[in-house]
Amino acid sequence: MFSGSSVAVVTPMHADGAIDLESWHRLLEFHLAGGTTAVVVGGTTGESATITDTELKQLVVAARLFARGRMAIIAGAGLSSTALTVDRARWLSELNIDGLLVVTPTYVKPTQEGLFQHYLAVATASKVPVVLYNVPGRTGVDMLPSTVGRFATVPRIVAIKEAVPGTMRVKEILSAAPSFTVLSGDDATCREAVLAGARGVISVTANVAPQSMSDMIAAALTGDANRAAELDAPLARLHTDLFVEGNPIPVKWALHRMGMIRPGIRLPMTPLSQALHERVAAALTAAGVHQASRGV
């Protein structure tokens, strides 16, 4: 479950911002067919900051009913407040999902001890496995490998999505906690991370190229560096150009261009700037991703 190519899936919306369940099922079918091992619902790429608890539950339940054990369903549970995160972990745990992804508290900049106590409280409340999520570029706090190492013996905390780029952080975490599962949270360096000991990726690129990401990560997991590099090369522009504006702006535009979703996105996110359309479209073409003549 916590290995291979997982997707930090977008939340499809109508033009007015309402959740688009028709497109949601289309995305889930796309990922099941494309070899995605797990779908993260309501993460950063899923616009977690703007979807309500009611909407998150609706998305999770629909995904679980669709998946029926054929791919794992992981729900985003992290909030800045420990008490609110604990409450969310409790009710999400009751939805028969496979795990929770819990980002470090944003904006408040807790100490390393505060991070440890925060996750300990969440793990105690949860009935399903917990995946830590460290993304200092968005949250303003970096959970250090020494802190991650403290979780190695905490029940239900089983993995970390590590978005610090490169291989050094992967090696540092595995040195502190050799049995811990590390998942890359950085598409541009995920191949190297897996070759260095990570067990997979939670990916933005996989939104538009699930089979290619699945094949590349599978090659890296076998230690076939040459084959993994060969498979990763066409994806390189996606790894960078899906971030030319704040995630998920470019990837939602790309999925609309592919005919997968409608163009809805919620403020403060806005549609992709017109000047960047050609750049993102070229990245899709380089990756061999089919683009519809018009969106949904």
Polypeptide structure, described:
The protein is α/β, with parallel strands linked by helices and 296 residues long. It is 42% helix and 13% strand. It is built from 13 helices and eight strands. The protein has helices at 21-33, 53-67, 82-93, 112-125, 136-139, 145-150, 168-176, 190-195, 210-221, 225-232, 236-241, 249-257, 277-286, and strands at residues 4-8, 38-41, 72-76, 99-103, 130-134, 157-162, 181-184, 200-203. α1 (21-33) packs across α2 and α3 runs parallel beside α4 (112-125). The radius of gyration is 18 Å and the shape is globular. The chain starts with a strand and ends in a 10-residue tail after the last helix.
Number of domains: 1
The appropriate CATH architecture is Alpha-Beta Barrel
Q: Residue-averaged pLDDT, rounded?
A: 97
Cα shape: globular
What is CATH's topology name? TIM Barrel
Radius of gyration: 18 Å
Distance between the termini: 32 Å
Tell how many strands the DSSP assignment holds.
8
Largest sheet: 8 strands, parallel, barrel
Beta-strand content bin? 5-15%
Strand order of the largest sheet: 1-2-3-4-5-6-7-8
Number of helices: 13
CATH class: Alpha Beta
Secondary-structure element order, as H and E? EHEHEHEHEHHEHEHEHHHHH
CATH superfamily: Aldolase class I
How much helix, percentage-wise, in residues?
40-55%
Q: List unreliable stretches of 5+ residues.
A: none
Q: What would you call the structural class? A: alpha/beta
